[in-house]
Amino acid sequence: MSAITDADRELKAKHRAMWASGNYPEMVETFLLPLGPRLVQACNIGAGVSVLDVAAGTGNASIPAAQRGAYVTATDLTPELLQAGAKLADAAGTELTWTTADAEHLPFQDESFDIVMSSIGVMFAPHHQQAADELARVCRPGGTIGLLSWTPDGMLGGLFRLMGQFAPPPPAGASPPPLWGSETHLQGLMGDRVEWRSMERQVLDITAFQRPRDYGEFFKARYGPTIGIRANAERNGRADEFDAALDAFCEEWNTGTETKARFAMEYLLAVGTRV
After folding, report:
1. Is the pLDDT of residue 1 over 90?
2. Axis-axis angle for helices 224-235, 212-222 (nearest 10)
3. Per-residue DSSP letter, 102
4. How buried is residue 142: exposed, middle or buried, by Cβ count under 10 Å (0-12/13-18/19+)?
5. SS3 category, 261
6. Residue 134 gets which letter from DSSP?
7. pLDDT > 90 fraction of the chain, expressed in percent and rounded
8. Half-sphere exposure of residue 67, counting CA atoms within 13 Å on the CB side?
9. Alpha-carbon torsion (74, 155, 17, 24), positive or negative
């Protein structure tokens, strides 16, 4: 495991605060719930296996994995998300371990888990290669690595490109999160350490919003990255410009009507064997 620098601690503290802002648990409950079970199914998780869910958030994949009888450790940089997940697990009568951890510095021994997975989580670690190295390090040879990530050319990739126009400069060495949803990028990160069994682009269909612009308003009120970037736009006198750009984005990506919005959020579901 690489050493943690003061600059890295400062960056991760900012990330932790960003994800604790807004109401990410409500976002999960509103339209992200199907993703976790899809990843669990693709990884063929069953009873008795040891599973690490990296950047697990509120346990959208961790809890379904534990309900299949796996021994699950759910990790995330943000304790508030894990606390919300623990309440959900308790309500469902599901047992698993919740551990605050940085995806780029996982506190586990080499080859500790049968299955290492992440559902729209590890992709937000700023240093992609470092995070990928950690995923590979803690997975046993012959074990499974399963990742579900938004694609760069899908709706969320477009959203992050839009928000990037209003964001402060990224930290040194950071890469855009949706690159994890690129087959080529993912293969480059893992190299010959993972033999990919499947890489499939799928779509999460969103029908939770009445009007197209309601999608953007929902993100501005609840999604940490959007909240932080809009605040930066406001500090620079560009809040109205940000709002107008987000409204136009929602209209552009709406495949429904003006009174019944519909969005297709593309992701890459990749499952491989640790060599």
Report:
1. no
2. 90
3. B
4. exposed
5. coil
6. H
7. 96
8. 16
9. negative
Apex CA 239: angle with CA 235 and CA 245, to 5°? 140
pLDDT at 3 exceeding the cut of 80: no
Per-domain residue ranges for the chain?
Answer: 6-204+266-274
> Quick one: which of 25, 11, 182 has its CA closest to 105?
11
For 151, how many CA atoms within 13 A lie in the half-sphere containing its CB? Answer: 19
Rounded distance between C-alpha atoms, residue 171 and residue 128, angstroms? 13
- The predicted model scores a pTM of 0.97
Query: How many CB atoms lie under 10 A from the CB of residue 22?
Result: 20
- CB neighbourhood size of 195 (10 A): 11
Give how far the C-alpha of residue 125 lies from the chain's centroid of Cα atoms, to the nearest Å: 9
Distance CA 70, CA 47 (A): 5
Which residues have a Cβ under 8 Å from the Cβ of 115 and sit 6 or more positions away? 43, 45, 49, 50, 51, 52, 65, 70, 139, 143, 144, 145, 146
In the chain, the amino acid numbered 27 is M
Q: 1.10.10.10, 3.30.70.890, 3.40.50.150, 3.40.640.10: which CATH number matches 6-204+266-274? A: 3.40.50.150
Q: Can you tell me the distance from the alpha carbon of 82 to that of 28, in angstroms, rounded to the nearest whole number?
A: 13
Q: Which two tokens stand for residue 124?
A: 């937000």
In whole angstroms, give the CA distance from residue 7 to residue 223. 25
3-state secondary structure of 198: strand
Residues 6+ apart with CB under 8 A from 185: 128, 179
Averaged pLDDT of the chain: 97
